[in-house]
TrEMBL record:
This is 3'-5' exonuclease. Residues 34-208 form the Exonuclease domain. InterPro entries: Ribonucl_H (IPR013520), RNaseH-like_sf (IPR012337), RNaseH_sf (IPR036397). It comes from Rhodoplanes serenus. NCBIfam families: PRK09145.1 (NF006601).
């Protein structure tokens, strides 16, 4: 609740500071009934120093993932790509050398997303990467509401867990618990698609009041705690 109040307050300020009024639609109330699953792959893991090399977004309407309404783009980074990042997402500098720049990609991405809420796995990282460019382009941060599937999963599985419960919020652990088939990770479209599936399942669980069972650990000898 506190975060939502801060987000709205920041959005009011950013709307006044918006450098290009043609993007005022980002601040309009969303009446589409949709959310957008977003994922970025980057040239490294330093938000300040590294760049987006691919970005994908998929619209979700109710419990339907609209795979016919997607956005995906390779992006030519301004910084050299770290070997460690290349090993993760398998995109080489040769793969993105002829891609568009982020300044060319961002307007199309923003019009695709609009003011819809954003969904993702650790979506705050993706939003912070996007904001790095958006501030330079429009003098604002993304005002969109955010839903992190790891937080939704935590609430469904660990929200009433006793102190000391071992918590596992890994991407693979969430997918396994929800019965999802793992697609090759660290591909922006695949990750956005799996995050969309996680979101749809977890939202349905919320609506139906269904919780994810936690595995009970057998007590040690002499341990009579419940």
């Amino acid at each position: 609740m506190r975060f939502e109040i801060l987000r709205r307050s920041r959005a009011l300020i950013d709307r006044m500071l918006l450098a290009d009024r043609s993007y005022d639609f980002l601040f309009h109330p969303d009446d589409s009934g949709e959310v957008v699953s977003v994922d970025c792959e980057t040239s490294g893991f330093n938000i300040l120093a590294d760049d987006i090399v691919s970005i994908a977004a998929i619209k979700i309407r109710g419990n339907q993932i609209l795979t016919s309404e997607t956005f995906r783009a390779l992006v030519r980074p301004g910084a050299a790509m770290e070997v460690s990042a290349i090993k993760v997402h398998q995109l080489r500098e040769a793969d993105v050398r002829e891609a568009r720049t982020i300044r060319e990609v961002m307007p199309e991405f923003l019009r695709f997303v609009g003011s819809r809420p954003l969904v993702g796995y650790w979506v705050s990282f993706d939003v912070r990467m996007i904001n790095k460019y958006l501030f330079g382009l429009l003098n604002i941060n993304l005002p969109n509401r955010q839903y992190d599937v790891s937080e939704l999963y935590y609430e469904r599985k660990y929200g009433k867990a006793p102190p000391g419960t071992e918590i596992d919020l890994r991407y693979a652990a969430i997918a396994a618990d929800l019965g999802l088939t793992m697609l090759p990770q660290h591909d922006a479209f695949n990750d956005a698609l799996v995050a969309a599936q996680m979101y749809v399942i977890l939202r349905d669980m919320q609506r139906r009041g269904v919780r994810i069972p936690r595995q009970r650990v057998a007590p040690r000898a002499g341990d009579f705690s419940v």
